[in-house]
Specification:
The protein has 168 residues and is of the alpha+beta class. The protein has one domain. It is built from three helices and seven strands; from the N terminus they run ααβββββββα. The chain is elongated, with a radius of gyration of 22 Å.
Length: 168
C-alpha cells in the first residue's frame, strides 16, 4: 500500500496548532499577572504593608480591643523576590464582621495573615489563592515590581518563625 503524500493544508494546520499552543502558554501567565494586579489595585494601594494590614483589620473586625503587627517581611528568605511580603497581625477582642467573636479554642485572639506585593504605585494585598509567589516572579519579568525590601519591619514573616499565638 502506498502512502499518500501529505497536503500543504495538513502541514499548515499542524504548524498553526503548535503556534497557538505556544502562544497560549507564553501569554497566559502574563495576562493572569496583569489581571490579578489590576484586581488588587482596585481593592486598595497602600504606602506600607502595615497600612494595608490596618485597613484589612478595619474591614473584617468590629471594635477590637487590641491589634498589632506580629510579623511583616519578605516571604522568601533568599531575597529573590523582596517585593512579595507576608504580614501577620494579632486581633484581640471585639468581633468579626459576621458577628462571631474573635479567637478560638487556643485563645481570644485572631491571627490574620496575608500577602502584600510591592508594585511601582505602592503595596497591594493579595490572597494566597491568587498565587502571589507566582505573580511576584512574573512581576519582575514584566517590570511591574516595586523595589520592596529584604529586611522585615516586624518580627519575622518566615513561616517557621511565625509565633504560635499572639503575644504582646
Amino acid at each position: 500500500m502506498k502512502k499518500r503524500p501529505r497536503s500543504p493544508a495538513v502541514w499548515l494546520v499542524r504548524v498553526l496548532g503548535i503556534a497557538i499552543v505556544c502562544g497560549v502558554v507564553w501569554l497566559s501567565p502574563r495576562l493572569y499577572t496583569i489581571h490579578q494586579l489590576r484586581v488588587a489595585r482596585a481593592a486598595g494601594v497602600y504606602p506600607s504593608v502595615e497600612e494595608g494590614m490596618r485597613d484589612l483589620i478595619a474591614k473584617h473586625y468590629i471594635a477590637p480591643d487590641h491589634t498589632w503587627i506580629v510579623g511583616a517581611g519578605p516571604n522568601d528568605d533568599t531575597g529573590r523576590n523582596p517585593h512579595v511580603w507576608f504580614v501577620t497581625a494579632c486581633v484581640c477582642g471585639g468581633q468579626r464582621v459576621d458577628g462571631s467573636p474573635t479567637g478560638n479554642y487556643r485563645g481570644d485572639c485572631d491571627m490574620p495573615g496575608t500577602f502584600y506585593l510591592n508594585t511601582k504605585e505602592g503595596w497591594v494585598q493579595m490572597g494566597e489563592g491568587a498565587f502571589p509567589g507566582l505573580i511576584g516572579g512574573w512581576m519582575k519579568e514584566l517590570d511591574l515590581a516595586g523595589p520592596g525590601s529584604s529586611q522585615p519591619t516586624h518580627g519575622s514573616s518566615t513561616p517557621s518563625m511565625r509565633p504560635y499565638r499572639c503575644t504582646h
